[in-house]
Amino acid sequence: MTVTVRFAPSPTGHIHIGNTRTALFNWLYAKKEGGRFILRFDDTDIERSRQEYADGIARDLEWLGIEPDLTVTQSQRFSLYDAAVEKLKAAGLLYPCYETTEELERRRKIRLSRRLPPVYGREALKLTDEERAALEAEGRKPHWRFLLPNYRHDPFMTERTEVQWDDVVRGPQTVDLASMSDPVLIRADGTYLYTLPSVVDDVDLGVTHIIRGDDHVTNTGAQIALFRALDAAPPAFGHHNLLTTASGEGLSKRRGALSVASLRENGIEPMAVASLAVLIGTSENVTAASSMQELAALFVPTATSRSAAKFDPAELTGLSRHIIQNTPFTKVSDRLSELGIAGDDTEAFWLAVRGNLDTVAEAAEWWRIVKDRPASDAELSQDDRDFVRSAARSLPLEPWDGETWREWTGAVKTETGRKGRGLFMPLRIALTGREQGPELAGLLPLLGREETLARLS
């Protein structure tokens, strides 16, 4: 059996880091098992689904390094769902209900007042053909519920019916179908809710493992029952904990909270996003993996905590910085070229500045400082101006290398008596226009003697 997983976003907004966690759990599980990864767009909500969002999700996954083996869209598969509906109706497992939202809420409150579980009482099953016809004559259109197998002979005499599975993440799980309402599979307007298309697709596409957020644990019992009603063996299930903001709020795709697109635009490295999305809320230390292969080695589904994981976006910046500061030139050369950083000394430049960058894009500013002119962030006092002019007289002759800065500042110290900050800061400001930045030992050979003298004068 080939392990087959799926990531099934609705293209109704941009995916956020919480969605990314689900995608990566599936991707890494498939890679570790030599399996397949399916990207399935759950776009049956025609009103809110947009192609631009689907394109954006595909682009975000590609940026993270996730490459689907197959991509499908539910809006092109309605014939499969229609056939499943007819099969369930023929078996007496899908029945029409005519209650309004207000009527259902009133019944729920009555059951609660009687200290009964607020589950649907299957009143629609008692309707006669004449009563249904009368309701439809009033203009009511039915929604359709799936009859859960939580009774022996009489559907109004439910009894504890356990559905059990060995969860890939959480271990042994049990759901009692008697504690649940029969799920609505089709709305009154004829559109499908999530459950039926999802199950039908999982059967048709040969999905063997469903890994998703733990907000779906209870739903799993009903879905396993639906798999069996369609004469299909249920796949294995895994439910990981959810991510929240640092304040404990849930993430929302529609509000764009911590969207992958915004993180990319802000210069965060993809492996920083992947590392945090996968490792936070597990027993593993959150470290910046350098590749998907390295992250896969750290990925252990059963190491995931059962409680929600809070994270601070600032953690992403730290992980991203660590990745950048350890990225070799060969892996970043194309990106530097796109920023206009090119030439024989590009590698030396990258090695000189990478330790001071939060994003790769910041390298462009340092390239301008080195190749064009100093920044204007800091100014020298008249006393320091006189000092740097005198320091120019001690500049060594070329060729220059990584030792030139030490040799030069040693000579200046001997000549002027200055040391520490009083020696180094004026030289840094004169050469770069900033009080902080990359080590000048690496920048000085890039500037060259002629340019250095010009900046000191």
Task: Describe the protein in words.
Residues 3-316 form the Glutamyl/glutaminyl-tRNA synthetase class Ib catalytic domain. This is Glutamate--tRNA ligase. A motif ('KMSKS' region) lies at residues 250-254. A motif ('HIGH' region) lies at residues 9-19. The protein is of the alpha/beta class. The chain folds into five domains: 4-74 and 193-243, Rossmann fold (3-Layer(aba) Sandwich), CATH 3.40.50.620; 80-164, Glutamyl-tRNA Synthetase, domain 3, CATH 3.90.800.10; 260-325, no CATH class; 329-371; 382-456, Arc Repressor Mutant, subunit A (Orthogonal Bundle), CATH 1.10.10. Helices cover 45% and strands 11% of the residues. The protein has helices at residues 17-32, 51-64, 78-90, 101-113, 129-137, 195-204, 217-229, 260-265, 270-279, 292-298, 313-325, 329-338, 346-353, 363-371, 382-392, 404-416, 421-432, 440-456, and strands at residues 4-7, 36-41, 70-73, 94-97, 143-146, 162-167, 171-176, 184-186, 209-213, 236-240, 243-244, 309-310. The chain has a three-stranded parallel sheet, covered by helices on one side. The longest helix is centred in the last third of the chain and has 17 residues, at 440-456. The chain is elongated and about 105 Å long.
